[in-house]
Amino acid sequence: MLFDRVLYLSYAKNSLLTTEYCIKHRKEEIAVQKKWVAIAAAAVLVTAFLLSGWNGSQAQEGKLHNCPQPGKWAISVWAGEDRIETGQAIATCESVYIDAAYYLDSNSQNWLRYFPNHPEFNTLLTLNNLQGIITLGHYIEPTPTPTPTPDPLVYLHNQQIVFVASEYGKEDSLWVVNADGTNARQLITNMDYLSILQPKWAPDGEKIAFIKKWSGVWGGHLTILDSSGQILNVIKEDIVDFSWAPDGKSVIYSIKYDGIYRFDVQTKQTQQILITSPGTYDHNPVWSPDGSKIAFVHHEWENNFYISLINFDPKRVPYSGEDIYNNSRNSEIKVITSGESTYDEDLHPQWTSDGKKLVLYSLADSGTIYITDVAKKLVIEISLEDQGLSLEYWWRSEPVELSPNGREIAFVSGRSLYLIDIDGTNIRKVVEAKLNVSYPDWSADSRYIAVTMTPYMYVVSRDGNELYTLSEVAGDKIYSFLDWSP
């Protein structure tokens, strides 16, 4: 309780008291000195109790006992000769430097004090044997522990990339490889000369889903595997695109001219979320990070698109595509932004990790990247044509990828991979290839990007200083549809 009275000392930088500070608080000390007489008496009793167990052999002569901890107050006791200089006495605390010492004189009822760095304020000049004083240890700023630089090869070895390997005239196959190029293994071979599209890891890292497509049709069957390649589910619909729920327990997918559906992987139950209105096309549904909303693209015949948002309530679905034009009729569906593009263009909306923004793109006019604030409905449009660039699109590829931390956007232009900040500034080239660049995908920590540069697959650091070749991990084939494990 004695500490409350002198607590202000601990807030003075390096415990250095200026003359102005002492004068300001001197009047306050005088006004409350009587109050502290009783407390001082209690302190004397405490000190007496501490000393009652000591005898001549136990007390170390010439030493201050019970030295304070750094930044803490303590009741210390001098055991040694009488009338020793206070500075000499407190210097015997070798483990800590003492910033201040206080003693309440029972005769004068005044506080006597000692500051090693300000002798002009000192009134506690000497100490007697077994005299108790209040001491303050000097606070030592802890030395920060440097963050070790992670070994990139160790990190990459513990990460996995799923990809499609293709060979002309033969069936596609699905592979998984460590991001350092080791432990490549084939999960499944697609018989009957079908295409494998859009393999995506579930957020739990335990499952992989992909679309199995027949030649000449728009969509295909959605197949879900475990990480060993064992088939868990097959949804036999004409599915165009899909995304995983944040908890990895369900997927949402679109069927052209039909609507958007949700499939529960555990119960195997299907639920329609949106009924597509006549003459329109709803696609590219993607969950918000918290699972409360679903963003999707609504296209019309006239090539108008609407980036729309559903406040997902499983008890109120399915919603109608007609409600997209009439927000007053159904407040659960909202239009975030709109524009023009080709009717079958994916746009590929992606959420930032905080759920506040959506990033999407259009291939029209050499390519435009849109960064949309969901709440404010503010849109930043980045015309790549104005930058002398153009989006490079390969069949069903996604040339624009938002980093998991939501800070940067990777995109492909020509034979190069570029980055741009989420505010639309600072476009810079990461790596340039001799032939084609395609299928960029970020690592979970946003430090690396997997990409195909014909004919092989590579991993490049976001600053372009590290480049690792994953050559021929699945043989002499074409690699596509890369997806990094969570």
Which keywords apply here?
486 residues; mainly beta; Neuraminidase; 2 domains; five-stranded antiparallel sheet; 4 helices; elongated; disordered N terminus
Report what the structure shows.
This protein has 486 residues and is mainly beta. The chain has two domains: 2-137, no CATH class; 152-484, Neuraminidase. It is 10% helix and 42% strand. It has helices at 2-5, 19-52, 86-90, 152-157, and strands spanning 63-65, 73-79, 84-85, 98-104, 111-114, 126-127, 131-137, 160-166, 173-178, 185-189, 195-201, 207-213, 220-226, 231-244, 250-255, 259-264, 270-275, 280-287, 293-300, 304-311, 319-320, 333-340, 350-351, 357-362, 368-373, 378-383, 400-402, 408-413, 416-421, 428-432, 437-442, 448-453, 456-461, 467-470, 478-484. It has an eight-stranded mixed sheet, with no helix packed on it. A five-stranded antiparallel sheet has the order 1-2-7-4-5. A hairpin with a 6-residue loop joins strand 9 and strand 10. The model is unreliable at 1-59 (pLDDT under 50).
Summarize, please.
With 486 residues, the chain is mainly β.
